[in-house]
Amino acid sequence: MFSNLISSSCRGLKTIDKELFKVNVQVKALIVPVKFIGKIQKDFRQDLFNLPRCKNVIEIPEDKQHKLVLLKHEYLNSDNGATLNEIAILKEAKDNGWQSTTHSVELDYNYWSADDILKAVLPNPDQAPSSYEQVGHIAHMNLRDEYLPYKSLIGQIVLDKSPKVKTVVNKLDSIDSTYRNFKMELLAGENNLIASVRESNCIFNFDFSKVYWNSRLQNEHDRIINTFSKGQYICDVMAGVGPFSIPAAKNKKCNVYANDLNPASYSSLVENIKLNKVGSLVKPFNIDGRQFIRSSFRNLLLESITKSSKTNEKFKLFDHVVMNLPATALEFLDAFVGVFHDSNLNDSHDKPSSESSKPSETKSSFTGLKEYLKSANLPLIHVHCFSKSDDPNSDIIERAQAAMSIVDSSEISELSKNAKVTWVRKVAPNKDMYCLSFRLMNSVATRNPQPDNQLSV
Asked: So which residues are the signal peptide here (predicted)?
């Protein structure tokens, strides 16, 4: 309201001139005895000047017996008898003999919202880029090309109008397919990209310029974590700085194997494990995603075999696997083919050095596993992905089938029956993010694996 009164000379500004945003709004006002103020605010609210962040009852200097009550802007010229009788508060004023006057309300740069100002200065007010992702003290924008000439102005407006924002950056290119970070430029504020974010009762510290973080995914993080039960075992293949792993450990007391190939993400993951005091529950890794899937499944089995005398549970499997790399995660499903096949279970070359064992120690360790797997609940896999298809469910399930080389009709039927595709969010026009959840099939996990395409994450 009243933003249309901002001077047209603001249009096309490249730097902020705050004086141009001053607007004086004339309103009708009533001089009302103090004892009636409460009644007016209760009974005539609809008639008052109710502009956000503006007072409609004002002190009168040197008159403690009365106050100035501001009325709706539309009542300014309502002085004829017919109008007085139609407007309740004006009739009340006439009946009580209250005097009326005019009052000037000054709205300046500090009053207007970022959206008001952006619409006033940019060439196309209908598409002003006022939205951004906030990552700690950082406002992350993704400006379209037509707004790049105004990027400094936009950054300064966002900085001015967002009390918790200290740094405004703009994304320069697409996300790097290997390490999931992207180049950015500073638009306004401090050149400080070390962010601290609170999410899901946890604290995450990281360098936003070197790792992947998306605050808009908090609901998805919570949704997946809420499928975990207390004490379950979680395999987080593309863990980033820990938005799934650390809350799972801290809030659900889950045992988590967490991996990310990006050295900066791994470093932050390790820091955040310590920061949130979940070191006894989260094991961090910094290796290739496919290698991590194969080795972590094997190593959890070996760990459970070693502890079986104390737990009476010889074989331990992961309960959930999380794969949050939507650009390529579906392709990594091939790592589950033969994950419980002898060729993987007895392969000592595919283990992180901290988890390696001699081949002779593992070869006979898995006696009885095949029989156990026939009745065991294999892991529930949650894999994030993008789809542009008009039929995303079929598209995503078919891509998953292809990745796991599923061609047998019974396996196709089983996957289609137990798979669930959940919409996560819209990423771009005609491009949405989804999560495919399905239980790993025994026939896939025990099949002799085919040579894979080593794509790292």
From this structure: none
312: which residues sit within 8 A by CB, 6+ positions away? none
Query: Mean pLDDT of all residues in the chain?
Result: 89
Is residue 221 a known part of a binding site?
A: yes
128 vs 325 pLDDT, higher one = 325
SS3 content of the chain, % helix, strand, coil (to 5): 40, 25, 35
Spatial CB neighbours of 382, under 8 Å, sequence gap ≥ 6? 224, 227, 320, 321, 322, 323, 435, 436, 437
Does residue 348 sit in helix, strand or coil? helix
Residue 421: C-alpha distances to residues 250, 322, 332, 431 (Å):
27, 14, 17, 15
Query: What are φ and ψ of residue 98, in 5° steps?
Result: -80, 140
CB 405 within 8 A of CB 334: yes
Beta-strand relationship, 380-387 and 431-439:
antiparallel
- In terms of Cα–Cα distance, which of 289, 375, 385 is closest to 339? 289
Domains defined for the chain, CATH in brackets: 23-107 (3.30.70), 114-199 (3.30.300.110), 214-346+362-446 (3.40.50.150)
> pLDDT > 70: what percent of the chain?
89
Q: Is 260 annotated as belonging to a binding site?
A: yes
Q: Which of 122-136, 144-158, 274-288 has the highest average model confidence (pLDDT)?
A: 274-288
288 is in an annotated binding site: yes
State the average pLDDT over residues 99-122.
Answer: 91
Q: Give SS3 for 215.
A: helix
What does the pLDDT read at residue 442? 94
Annotated binding residue at 137?
Answer: no
pLDDT tier, 353 (very low <50, low <70, confident <90, very high otherwise): very low
